[in-house]
Amino acid sequence: MAQSEQSIPSAAASVKPGADPHQGITAVPGIRVGHAGRMGDGWLSGVTVVLPPPGTVASVDVRGGGPATHETDALDPSSLVPTVDAVVLTGGSAYGLASAGGAQRWCEEDGRGFAVPGGVVPIVPAAAIFDLGRGGEFTARPDAAMGYQAAAAAAAQQEGHDVERGNVGAGTGALVARGQFKGGVGTAAITLHGISAGGPVTVGAIAVVNALGFPVGLPTAAAAERRSTTMSPPAPLNTTLVVVATDADLDPAGCRRMASAAHAGIARALNPSHTLADGDTIFALATGATVLERGTSMAQQVGLITLHSAAADVVRLAILDGVSAAESVVTPAGTFPSYTQSAGDTA
Question: Percentage of the chain surpassing pLDDT 70?
């Protein structure tokens, strides 16, 4: 077979056999996830913290037209510090970005951060979804204390722990499909073979699904989709947030490329996606535990292409998992039914 005809291995066909479907992103060794949130008494919001092992390289790619982010400039491949100490996904729109300060304080107390005279400065990027007022009180939103709680919860987890999904953490107040159905937190993982002499490469993702679009690949809530065609244009209250992680040894530019490729997963899972009313953001993490084969030959490039393909696949799976795991909620602000339950009711 000529080099130009070499096939690229199917990432979807290499899903880790026998893996707990709830494990998801924590299938990547060293990655831990913690949630904090509140429901009731006006609340429907929360925070999710992804805590990587020290030395994890990172980047980010923001594609939505309405993002709420913190410290994303620090993840530019040309910036001084190539690593991150935690990633915060939060509710509360721009107000909720205050939760990053709590996660940063936890990291400082743990000695994580960029060493400077007198101490450390933890690098803690964050992104927020809009869920303000969905529990009934506009001012009920995450703060630094909740960010600290989520970071501490992540640190308390065991290696390879299962990840809570659905109405938890930053997904507590998430909605999908023009605000008609409950969204939530989802996760997934894929293991790739044959792209590294050092052994299998794992790619995992966690998604907070608060999208304007409808999920693609789940049973269709047909009646709701028909209603949506007569609705007025939605307010800019949407965002899908993702962290995609791998144990491959990527540099910051490689992480940026993986984050960019992973956005295809959002487009495959949600219709529409990346709109002016969404703040779609993907953070990419690389722990560096497994060395990829690199070079100029096509055979060596196939490894990176396969990794990027897997990143898109796992993001799609995590998004659909988040919608599937979300449960119906009733608050003073409204009734938000489960999408999958509603699809069954209208089938």
Answer: 86
Q: Is the pLDDT of residue 46 over 90?
A: yes
* Residue 301, CA distances (Å) to 85, 202, 287, 306 in order: 30, 18, 20, 9
Cα 93 from Cα 258, distance rounded (Å): 26
* 181-221: pLDDT as tens digits: 999 999 999 999 888 877 899 999 999 999 999 999 887 76
Domains of the chain, residue spans: 12-346
pLDDT, tens digit, for every residue of 140-185? 999 999 999 999 999 999 999 999 999 999 999 999 999 999 999 9
CATH 2.60.40.1120 fits 12-346, yes or no: no
pLDDT band at 236 (very low <50, low <70, confident <90, very high): low
Least Cα distance to 208 among 176, 230, 234, 235 occurs for: 176
Note whether 239 and 210 are within 8 A (CB): yes
- Name the residue among 146, 343, 129, 150 with its Cα closest to residue 238: 129
Question: What is d(CA 51, CA 32) in angstroms, rounded to the nearest whole number?
Answer: 5
121 or 236: which carries more pLDDT confidence? 121
Q: Return the structure tokens found at 33.
A: 């996830």
